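Standup, Tuesday
Yesterday: got the pipeline producing structure tokens again.
Today: sanity-check two examples.
Blockers: none.

Example 1:
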Amino acid sequence: MRPQLHFAAAVTAVVVTAWVAHNNGGVGPSEDEAWQYEAVPIDGAVGPESFAFDPRGEGPYTGVSDGRIIKWHRTQNRWSNFSATSSHRDDECGGPYDQHPKKEHICGRPLGLCFSILSGDLYIADSYKGLVVVGPNGGITRRLISHVEGEPLVFTNGLDVDPRTGAVYFTSSSSKYQRRNYISLILSRDKTGKLMKYEPQSERVSILLNNLSFANGVALSKDGDYILIIETTTCRVLRYWLETPKTGTLEVFADLPGFPDNIKRSPRGGFWVGIYSRREKLIQWILSYPWIGKVLLRLPLDITKAYSYLAKLKRSTGLAIRLSEQGDILEIIEDKIGKKGRSISEVEERDGILWVGSIDAPFVAKYNIHVEKEQVKGFEDFFFSVSHFVVT
């Protein structure tokens, strides 16, 4: 074995050992301290990343791991197929969940999505296909943008639509790493993310921001005077002013305790942020020394799979935070027990219900924020416990 590999192996052994030692201790809260989520199962896929309700209030709609967009029918209590982001689908786009990542470039992987109130169209950020759109009645999507200024969109991620103009704001997380290599994107501290704007009437696309660290979800303010952008690697939310005398100004809106994914406006004010997992001391240490990430990336293994395995071993769980219009924390919801070990990608609040997404769960979590804590018996496989804190 070459000296470089000896060194890389040694660093890996230290990191893995520290990870396990760091996370095997501690006792979580009891069941009596927990609140309850109801899980809505998904057939044939996992990873309901993001949600959207159509202009009639129907839904939610969500994209899943096999490239489909599915719609929830509340009166029938079931999902139906609404769309797919690839026109080249075949039997290979189904199959076991763990095989879906290998086929994403063929079958598509829809992430952020939002309806245009003006047209009724659903805009979708597909991580491999770029920015795509489908009409109000569903069907196969139409690709709008796959290249910007001559460069391909390698990892299209989040989006939001301005209800006043129909303009679509969307992100590209990296020009180097695809979605399946998102851990490499973080370890490398890649800064090739972008925020872009697509104007449907003129079909013009423009780059608003460059050099972002894992640009992820976006959310327009209620007045449309600024847009918030998630930077996953730096664990923060940025604010970019679109109007007012501060137009063109970029500033830090909030620092977060974990790795954020998507951000959505709350009808009660502020914004919900879905957080994949907490940024623990070991991860902070690794990211503080770029050479460690470079060493790990040189190892002859799939670093994303390795991380996923360690996360399952640790039973890592996500959390959701509601931020005020000033970036202060108003509310926190977190799985403190960690029975399911699921990430949180997004929280969509609608009619007193929180629809909670994940990149790896085979269900959508549903949480009634108006119902007091109650014990639900006989449905252990369909519920998981969380702690809910309101900051006053």
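Example 2:
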Amino acid sequence: MEYDRKSAVSSFYGGRRTSVDALNSDFPPPGPPGRTRADSSSSFYGANRTSRADVYDEGIPTAGYNQTSYFDAGRKEPVKFKPGTDEEAPAEPAWDVYADFNNAGPRYSTAFGMGDNGYRQVPSPTPYSHDGAAYAKHSTPTVMGEDPATPGNVEMITVPALGPEWKAEEMRGMSKKAKREEKMENAATKWKEWKRGQRGLCGKYFTRKFTAWFLFFLCAAAALILAFTIPRVPGFNLNASQPLSSATAPLNETVPTEFSRAPANFSFPGQIVMQADTGSNFLPLTFNNIHGTVYDLQTSRAVATGDTGKLTVPARDLPIITLPLNFSYVATNDSDQTWSNWYNGCRNKAVYTDGKRPAVQFRLILDMSIQGLIGKKSTSTNVNDAACPIQLPLDSV
């Protein structure tokens, strides 16, 4: 048996069963008359052989190439092939839920001549007038097709759906009281975090520890600066031998020298020379003004006033300051004690047998306005033995 025995195998290869054993016979039995026996296998055993030549074998599965002859690897995907390109076909667009709101849904499709761009202008209503041609006509705009003059597009307006109702808590959260409480709560939280050192006053800067050290050094620096820059009130000393002296120009030319009994009064110029002590100042001391008032030591009546004006004295020194005085007093009569004290002290020396005039006694009060200090500073001193700065003539009252 040199021919292919597989073509005559049993029904395993799709052939019909016969009573003759093809494996033990030299020649296969002849087939039915008028019918040529064809190979029952598929083209798998030969490129030029047909697998379905016998019309009677149609409908009978073959063992050459069928789906049950191989292991089932699962679901087979069809091959997507697009002639003329190697790229994958674009995915179909997803269903747009907002299409109707954006005028892009199926209702606006251009298929079958149903073109619609989504905009339809609403025509203006016809104005109402008793005398016009539109009288007794409806002012409602006509639809498309009824009036040739009316545009074909009708404007479509989409009204959004109403949201859920506001709850009472949400309404309260929108009130000014709730917002104020929230701000206070946030401020309290930030304050507690700052006290714990978890945050700073300016972001991460000026934490509690840093702020404490910063304020300490700031106060120390301010104290040092103020110690050297704040002016001190100076002390004053008067000339013990001659507290009062004659006035110089221009005061001696503007203030007349006069004593009168009826009415009892007197006026004359004078000045006080003082020595200031600025040893406690590190910067030059500036006086806006020094106002002096002289009071009679026995009667406490004011008899003279004077001002220095603005002046600057050096620091850590003993400068001389001159205070001009204008002595002026008015009494009821010449028996006034104050008038008598200053009259006797200013009379001519020749009137007295020993040539010595009685001393005048007064109290000097200085009110100082110092630049750099708030308010006015005052100081005072008493003088028990001072000579009158003028001397009246012998023929004086």
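Quick observation on example 2: Strands lie at 235-238, 244-245, 258-261, 264-277, 285-296, 302-307, 311-313, 320-330, 360-370, 377-386. The first strand starts at residue 235 and ends at 238.
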